[in-house]
Design goal:
Elements (H helix, E strand, L loop, with lengths): L2 H9 L9 H10 L1 E5 L4 E3 L4 E2 L1 E7 L2 E4 L9 E3 L4 E2 L8 E2 L3 E4 L3 E7 H10 L1 H29 L1
Antiparallel strand pairs: 1-10, 2-9, 3-8, 4-7, 4-10, 5-6, 5-9
Helix pairs in contact: 1-2, 2-3, 3-4
Length: 149
Amino acid sequence: MALDDDVRNLARNSTFAEFEPEALRLLAFSAETHILRAGDVLFRRGDTADSGYIVLSGSIALTAQDDGSAAERIAGPQSLIGDLAMIAETQRQATAIAREPSSVLKISRTLFHRILREFPLSAERLRRQMAKSLQSFVGDLLRSQALKS
């Protein structure tokens, strides 16, 4: 896939939508593309997580169960998997398996932090976006608790 295609795919994801074009270009240029066959395991639950993945094509099944049950989530094109791992050290909470031939863009924590350092406007936009998401999440929790009372 061409660099410009990777940049467009990144820009379609809500996490990266507000990034500066130059930040997206560096991210797309420096990230690793992985090609998966149907049934290939991208990562396993409990693995140390050091990167996130943007699904470029195909679909990835995510499941926290190791008993062969149906996937809890299917990630398709432009989905971001493992976003927390781009920010902090963590463990994988699910196993990710390609459901069909797929390709993903691997964004390491080191690369993500570099982008945030070199593009402070993108970092600030991301911080604001994360703050809004967290406020919305807390509001949903409070409403849920109020309904239960």
